[in-house]
TrEMBL record:
InterPro entries: Aldlse_KDPG_KHG (IPR000887), Aldolase_TIM (IPR013785). This is Bifunctional 4-hydroxy-2-oxoglutarate aldolase/2-dehydro-3-deoxy-phosphogluconate aldolase. The lineage of its organism: Bacteria, Pseudomonadati, Bacteroidota, Cytophagia, Cytophagales. The keyword Cell membrane does not apply. Homotrimer.
């Protein structure tokens, strides 16, 4: 296992995107992750409802020491324990589980906690979430993030769902500190064997859409 046990905020802030991989195989990871890193991204989430998720997380931690490797779809303390045992450096949830947030805060592991309403977002933040994953943002869009941040401007928001190459810049412009992206970051046609160069070019062009002025320092 890598010596780097803690999440690198510096690496994340240089490319504030959590890449979400669900249902992937070892072979796919071996092809995709070097491309992802070479394109300038540093943070990847393997969802816990992926077959063999803990093995994949452990493998990524071992083989890519400069990558932030996290566990997603963590809904329970059982999920959390398995993710941490595998070496996850950050935790992403689709829901607000108080126990999970409090435990992550206690042990110093960042949690990106799923919430939607202003009340849920505020509660997740006050419980100790490192950032609040506004999910599913696909139904609400950029305007919702802007509206929430008007009164709750000290909360770090990480919209997830519905973030695309076409609108990613807008999310940062209204104050998001990062975004979560799955299929729009890893389009299925570009995940196929032999498409690595096309995927690389796509990822590089997407990264250019992130306004550098909004990236934290």
């Amino acid at each position: 296992m890598s010596n780097q046990t803690t999440f690198s905020w510096e690496a994340f802030e240089a490319a504030p995107v959590v890449g979400i991989l669900r249902g992937v195989t070892v072979d796919t990871l071996n092809r995709i992750i070097p491309v992802y890193q070479k394109a300038g991204f540093s943070t990847i989430e393997i969802t816990m409802n992926t077959e063999g998720a803990t093995d994949l997380i452990a493998q990524l931690r071992d083989e890519y020491p400069s990558l932030n490797v996290g566990a997603g779809t963590v809904c329970s303390m059982d999920d959390l324990e398995k993710a941490l045992m595998a070496g996850a450096q950050f935790i992403v949830t689709p829901i607000l589980n108080e126990e999970v947030i409090i435990k992550c805060k206690e042990i110093g592991v960042p949690s990106f906690v799923g919430a939607l309403t202003p009340t849920e977002i505020y509660n997740a933040w006050t419980l100790g979430a490192a950032a609040v994953k506004v999910f599913p943002c696909s139904q609400f869009g950029v305007g919702y993030i802007k509206d929430v941040l008007a009164p709750l401007n000290t909360i770090k928001l990480l919209p997830t769902g519905g973030v695309t190459k076409d609108n990613i810049a807008d999310f940062f412009k209204v104050g998001a500190i990062g975004v979560g992206m799955g299929g729009s970051l890893f389009p299925k046609p570009l995940m196929e064997e032999g498409k690595e160069e096309e995927l690389m070019q796509y990822l590089i062009s997407l990264k250019k859409e992130i306004p550098t002025a909004t990236i934290l320092s």
